[in-house]
Amino acid sequence: MSFGLRSCWSVPIRNFNDIVLGTFAMYHRKPARPLPAELRLVEAGARLAGNVITRLRSEKRLRDTSNRLDLAEKAAEFGIWEVNVASGDVAVSRGFAALIGLPAALRTFSLLELDSMLHPDDRAAVRASAEEAIKTGNFEAEFRIIPPDGSIRWERSQGRVELVEGESRTATGALIDITDERICWCRSKRFARLPKRPPVSRGKPRTSSRTGRSFSSRSQRTGRSTRSLWP
């Protein structure tokens, strides 16, 4: 009343699930009843406000999810990929681009470009896994890539192919860096191939052929342990 308003009518603002988000109201400076045209105008405004609010909230949730995904990718060193099987176009996450040494802004490229980054010795195996995935719907492979800096990185990728009426449409999966894991595995294999040392004899103390004294008697005379005198 302090603003000079004497009448008001409103309708609820609802989202797509018919949940009330607020109200859309019209005010007048004199007592009045809403005309049919004014009610239609308020209802149209409420529907428009509901659509806008729902979209803004969805965009915020999407941004929050994207930020959490970026943090998870950095912490776990993995990335997300999606392939359009028909066109061969690949869309990747920021974490995927970082793993293969590409700029974060480069988020789409072709399968041929990705294939060119594979180690020559692994290309045939990866292609065979991709062809098998189109038949079975499951993709899994371990391979080396050569980023633009010339280094060699080991990666593991797993994904699923969406089959519609027996035809593959899109494939979605994840890529994780396993370089450190492979380095440890190679070192353990090399260590396993090393010749093993014969076990240290723990039999009776040997006797010196020159002095005729046993090492145990020398240890008593010198104060040193028998074990320290054994070769």
Describe this structure in words.
This protein has about 230 residues and is α+β, with helices and mostly antiparallel strands. It contains seven helices and eight strands. It has helices at about 35-75, 95-100, 110-115, 125-135, 180-195, 215-220, 225-230; strands at about 5-15, 20-30, 80-85, 90, 110, 140-145, 155-165, 165-175. The strands form two sheets. The protein has a six-stranded antiparallel sheet with strand order 5-4-3-8-7-6, with helices on both faces. A two-stranded antiparallel sheet has the order 1-2. The longest helix is centred in the first third of the chain and has 41 residues, at about 35-75. The radius of gyration is 36 Å and the shape is elongated. The N and C termini lie far apart (about 105 Å). About 10% of the residues are buried.
